[in-house]
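Exam review. A common question shows you a sequence with its C-alpha cells and asks you to describe the fold in words. Practice with the pair below. Do the first one on your own.
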Amino acid sequence: NQKTARFATTSTSYTDVTGYDCSITPTSSSNKILVITSANFGAGADGQNNYARILRGSTNLFTNDQSIRMANAYHVNTYVSIILDSPNTTSATTYKYQVKAESNEVFLNRGGSNVTRGQSTIMLLELSS
C-alpha cells in the first residue's frame, strides 16, 4: 500500500494515519508476516519530538515507540521499519501506522510548508514456516 496524500494531526494521543494501512490473510497460522514500512514524517515546529508506532490490529509491534525528532520543520525525514511478526491466525489481519504529536503537529508526506514530499509505503510478505 502506497500513500502519497498528505496527512496531519495535532493529537497528543496516538491516532491512525488515515489510509496508511495494509491487510493480509495468512494461509497458515504458523506462517510469519514480514512487515516493511517506509514513512516520510515532518513536524510543525523546529526541534519537536513526535512519535510513531506500527500496529497489528490493536497490538503495538514496537518494543519502544519510534521517536520522530525534527530539527527543521520544513524538512521531511524517512523512517524505515522491518518487523518479522507472528500473527498466529488465518483471518484477515491489518497493519497500520499511528502517530502522536509532542506539541504543534506531526505530518506524513509533507513538511511544515504543506508541500507534498515523497510517498510512504507498507509492504506485507507472508513467509512459510
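Now try the second one, then compare your answer with the model answer below.
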Amino acid sequence: MLSELDNYLHRIEDLRRQVSELIAGLPAKALNWRPIKGDESHVTNSLAVLAAHIAGAEHFWIAEVIGGHPPTRDRDAEFATHATDAAELVRLLDKTGAETREVLSVLHEADLASTREAMGRIVPIRWCILHVIDHTALHLGHMQLTFQLWTGGQGKPSPFWFERLP
C-alpha cells in the first residue's frame, strides 16, 4: 500500500503527464491560440499559458513553499507565455516534476501536519500539496476544452479512473 505522500506524488505526476501528453507535438499556432481574445479581464488562456502556469504554481507550492527553495516564480510571465514548440513546455513540466520528486522525497508522513509560510499566511504542508493537485486538475480541464475547441470537437482520450491507480 502506498503511503500518503506517495499517493500525493502519484496524483501530481499523473495530472502533469496528462498535461504533457495533451500538448506534445502540437504546433506553436495551436499552443498559443486563445478561444476568446480580448482585454485582460475577458481573455481566455492558451494551452501554452496554462501549461506554464501549472508548472509555475507547482514550483511555487512544492519547491518554494514546502521545500524552502529561493523564490524564482514569475506568475505574470506565465500568463505572457508564447511557445515556439511543445517540447519547451514539456521540458518545463519535466523539470518541475523532478523538483517536486526531490522535495517530496525528503518529507516524512509526520511533516504533512506541519506548516509553512506563504504570502504572509501560515498554510499546512498537506494543504499545499492538495492545492497543487486541485489546481492542476482544474487547469487540465481548461486545457482539454481549449484543445477540443482548437480541433473542432476532437478530444484526446482521458484515462479511466482505474487506469490511474498506482
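Model answer, second protein: The longest strand covers residues 115-118. The beta strands are 115-118, 121-124. Full marks require stating both points clearly.
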